Every structure is written in C-alpha cells, then in structure tokens.
Amino acid sequence: MSSMGAEPGTVRPGGRTARVRAAVLQAAGDALAEHGFAHLDLTDVARRAEVGKTTVYRRWGTVTSLVADLLADMAEQSLPRTESGSLLGDLTANARLVQRTLADPRQGALFKAVIAAATGDTRTAEALHHFYDTRVNEWAPCVQQAVDRGELPENTDTHEVVRAVSAPLYYRFLTTNSLLDEAAADRAAEAAVAAARAGAYLRSRGM
C-alpha cells in the first residue's frame, strides 16, 4: 500500500476496503487534475494507488462511476460550516473556503476537469449536483440563523443566498486567468449579504 494507508492503530479491523477506496480516490483525483476526464483510465488509477486493477474494475467498473464516488467522498470530507455569529462573518468564511479550494493547483484543476466532464455526461453531472447540494445544505443554516436574528427578511431563500456567494468566484475561476484571492472572496460575501438584506433572494409567494 502507498502512503495513503492510515497510520497503524487508526484503522478498525476490516478497514482494508476503506483504505483501498481512499487510495483509489486520491489517485483518481491526482489523475483528473493532471490529465482531465478524457484521459482518466482505471488501469492507470490502479497503478497509482498500488491496488490491483481487478479490484478497481470490480468495485467501480467505469470511469464515470469512479468520478461519481470521488465527488461523493469530497462532499463527505468537506469542512463543516463556520458560525461566527454574524451573517457577513459566516458567508465570508464560506467564500474564503471556496476561494482556497479553487485557487489550489490540484483542487482547482480537478474541479475544472469535473465541470467540463459534467457538461457531456449525465452521471457526472448528477454527482456534481449532489456535491453542490451537500455543500449548500451545510451552509444554509447560517443564513436561516440570520433570518431568525432579524438580519434578513423573513421569506429569504437561504439556499439561494449561499449559492450567490460562490457564483462570482466560479465565474471568475472559469472565465478568466486572474488571481482568485481573498479580496475576491470577501467581495462575493459582501455582495451576497447586501443583496440578501435588500430582499433580492425572497422566495416567491407561491412557494
């Protein structure tokens, strides 16, 4: 097993399956970041992970299934929300987390590869949507707390506010070569808070 194996004594008996999955998903993420979805190959992933290719083919079967599992794991492993006591503080923490992820050379390349693949592959698109739904659901309570504190209008769509924080960061990430820095993250959070306070994200009355 490669260095992805857990430290001695930290794995429950029977934990080999979890170790194999972790090694394979790490290898898949590395390969995606380096070469993109089109060149992702299960045999290469097995070699990188130092796992038998039969194991990889039996468990995942296709590149699409492997990428779906990678995204599921990323959603599970993502950092929990930060609660600062203010909406701006919470959403700034969210924006900076997104910014750090996209600005990271490996993670940024990985997301570009998966987003590109999702435009032409339904299973990958579904997995990507699930990833973002998980992250939005994690942070939406911060917005609901702001509603409860009276910071935002009563009928605010909490999920739309969270999406509004990430949207300009992803747009800049995918359409420009400019540096995605903390200043961009802070502006995104400030803009989302200002718009939410102004009632831009109210649910329609029919909902």
Polypeptide structure, described:
With 207 residues, the protein is an all-alpha fold. The chain has two domains: 55 residues, Arc Repressor Mutant, subunit A (Orthogonal Bundle); 120 residues, Tetracycline Repressor, domain 2. The protein is 69% helix and 0% strand. It is built from nine helices and no strands. Helix 1 crosses helix 2, helix 2 packs across helix 3 and helix 4 packs parallel to helix 7. The longest helix has 28 residues. The chain is elongated. The N and C termini lie far apart (52 Å). The N terminus is likely disordered.
How would you summarize this macromolecular structure in one to three sentences?
This is TetR family transcriptional regulator. This protein has 207 residues and is an all-alpha fold.
